[in-house]
Amino acid sequence: MSDEPLGSVDLLLHPVRLRVVQALLGGRRLTTADLAAELPEVRPATLYRHVATLLDAGVLEVVAERRVRGAVERTYSLVEPAATADPGELADLDADAHRAMFTTFVATLLADFDRYLEQGRPDLVRDGVGYRQAALWLSDTELGELGQRLAEALGPYAVQGPGSGRTRRLLTTILMPSPSSSEGLADTP
């Protein structure tokens, strides 16, 4: 095992570490015991190792400590800027590496959906669950504007923490050119 630091991609897209990061999204503060309850299929020793890796990398921070039966229980939160893959590192990846990363991401998304379905009788309408796809014809400038408008619209909600009547909801976006996106390119100025 190397002592060389992991790149942001390797660090964040390991399936267990990705689940830890996702569990802490939305300003959540969780102990390792809380994380273990959310990731019951991950052995405790494995979970502790990955939490330590994320802590050492600055992706997690300790926000509280308390003594529990002689041991110190730490409460962690996410350092959001550190929980993003480095754009330069992403640009250097080949197609196979991107495919592997996307597969990890989608597998985690599928596992989240399976856990939702296993909670009992799912009611997608009641629970506000949806999945859909839309096709948008956008120039690079319009794509940038869309991203900015989405950030502005979501920003006030992203900073809200837990509260009365609030349910933590996961909003997942995947944005990519359509395989047939070359259609109409000759028609655009």
Topology:
Elements: H1 8-12, H2 15-24, E1 30-31, H3 32-38, H4 44-56, E2 60-68, E3 71-78, H5 87-91, H6 95-118, H7 124-127, H8 140-158
How would you briefly describe this protein structure?
The chain is built from eight helices and three strands, in the order ααβααββαααα. The protein is 46% helix and 10% strand. It has a domain at 8-129: Arc Repressor Mutant, subunit A (Orthogonal Bundle), CATH 1.10.10.
Name the helix and strand elements from N-terminus to C-terminus, one letter apiece.
HHEHHEEHHHH
Radius of gyration: 19 Å
SS strand fraction: 5-15%
The largest beta-sheet arranges its strands as 1-3-2
What attributes does this structure have?
single chain; 189 residues; mainly alpha; Arc Repressor Mutant, subunit A; globular
Please give a structural write-up.
The protein is mainly alpha-helical and 189 residues long. The protein has a domain at 8-129: Orthogonal Bundle (Arc Repressor Mutant, subunit A). Helix content is 46%, strand content 10%. The chain has helices at 8-12, 15-24, 32-38, 44-56, 87-91, 95-118, 124-127, 140-158; strands at 30-31, 60-68, 71-78. It has a 3-stranded antiparallel β-sheet with strand order 1-3-2. The longest helix has 24 residues, at 95-118. The protein is globular and about 60 Å long. The model has no long low-confidence stretch (mean pLDDT 87).
